[in-house]
C-alpha cells in the first residue's frame, strides 16, 4: 500500500499569477503532439507538411479546450454550473470531458477540412495516433490533483488519497494513463506507420479508447454527483464509451469492406 504524494496543484507562481500543473500538462501535451505530428509528415505515405500541421494544431487546441470544458459542463454537471456560471471558466480546478473534447475536435476537423479541402477522415486519421499523448498527460494531471480517484481496493499497489479518506484505492488515473495513453499510443502509432484504408485508423482509435475507458471504469470511483446510473454498476463513463466501441467496429468493417478500400486522393495520406 502506498500514499499518494501530496503535490501542490500550483506548479509555480510568478507574482500574482499561479501556474497550475493542470495547465502545464495540457501545454506539454500540445507541444509533444505538435512534434509528433511534424515527425509523422516524414513518413512516405503521409502527405502533410509542417505548415499544415501548425494550422491544424490551432483548430485542435480550440476543439479540445472548448469542447472538453463544455462537454464536462453539459454532460456531467449541468445543474451545478447553471447555478454557478462563473465556475465554467475555472478550468484550473479540473473538469474536462474527453468525450466533449472529442466532439470539439470533430467539429474543428470539419471546419479545417472545409477550409483546406481535406476530407474529414483524412484529418482524423492523421491526428488519431497523436491524441493518446494528450490523454496520458491529462490523466497525470488528474493524479497530481488527486481527482477521479479509484475505488477502494486491497491490491498491493493500492494508494491512500489523504484528501479522500484513509482507505486504500486503485490509482485509476494511472491505469488510464497507461492504457488510454501509453498503450493506445503504441497501438495506433505502429498501426498507422503503414498505409491503411481510409477511416481505419480513426475506427481503431474509437474502438481502442472506448474499450480501455470502459475497462478502467470498473476501477474508478463513480462521480459523486452521478453515482451508478444503471444496474448498480454502470457509470456515465461506461455509457459514453460503449457507443465509441460500436462506432469503431462499424468504421473498421466499413473501411476494409468498401469498394477499393486502399484508394486515396492525390493529396492525402494513405492511412
How are the secondary structure elements laid out?
Elements: E1 2-3, E2 10-14, E3 17-20, H1 21-40, H2 50-75, H3 78-83, H4 98-116, H5 120-127, H6 131-145, E4 159-160, E5 168-169, H7 172-191, H8 200-217, H9 236-257
Parallel strand pairs: 1-4
Antiparallel strand pairs: 2-3, 4-5
Helix pairs in contact: 1-2, 1-6, 2-4, 6-7, 7-8, 8-9
Binding site for a 1,2-diacyl-sn-glycero-3-phospho-(1'-sn-glycerol): 139
Pfam families: LGT
EC number: 2.5.1.145
Describe this structure in words.
- One of its GO terms (cellular component) is plasma membrane.
- It comes from Salinisphaera japonica YTM-1.
- The chain crosses the membrane at residues 12-36, 56-76, 96-114, 126-144, 174-192, 199-215, 227-257.
- Belongs to the Lgt family.
- Helix 1 (21-40) packs antiparallel against helix 6 (131-145), helix 6 (131-145) runs antiparallel to helix 7 and helix 8 (200-217) runs antiparallel to helix 9.
- The chain contains 9 helices and 5 strands, in the order βββααααααββααα.
- A hairpin with a 7-residue loop joins strand 4 (159-160) and strand 5.
- The strands form 2 sheets. A 3-stranded mixed β-sheet has the order 1-4-5, with no helix packed on it. A two-stranded antiparallel ribbon has the order 2-3.
- It has one domain.
- The chain starts with a strand and ends in a 14-residue tail after the last helix.
- 41% of the residues are buried.
- It has 271 residues and is mainly alpha-helical.
